[in-house]
């Protein structure tokens, strides 16, 4: 083998050098992708280039944190809400229940993907949003009845 040109599984071809790559990897101002938790306002959360550089728009990091926080609260609300009236048409109720489930799963995945930015602030606001959402909508603190027969239209979320 000469300088990795005949690497096993590479079909006799060397991997492309970073300088010959095209696409997002060719930009030198690209943000580093973290694989461990880090602290800081320069993070990329959910969308490419969002919230952007903390030097250009420092407030956008806090907007992103607020977005993840609210998203987490909404996931908890969907997990514990009662929107389907008892005695509703079974087909219509089943369709609404399915749509609510799909919305809850989609939003929960968005929170998960935001956490995968590995930014410590994003992680903390996601957990805080879930905790506050559960306190308001899932715990007994604000429940008027003591009968926990059915507290939600949706089954418990499972990972």
TrEMBL record:
Keywords: Copper, Copper transport, Ion transport, Membrane, Transmembrane, Transmembrane helix, Transport. The chain crosses the membrane at residues 59-79, 91-116, 122-142. It is found in: Membrane. Its main location: membrane. One of its GO terms (cellular component) is plasma membrane. Pfam families: Ctr (PF04145). GO terms for molecular function: copper ion transmembrane transporter activity. Belongs to the copper transporter (Ctr) (TC 1.A.56) family. SLC31A subfamily. This is Copper transport protein.
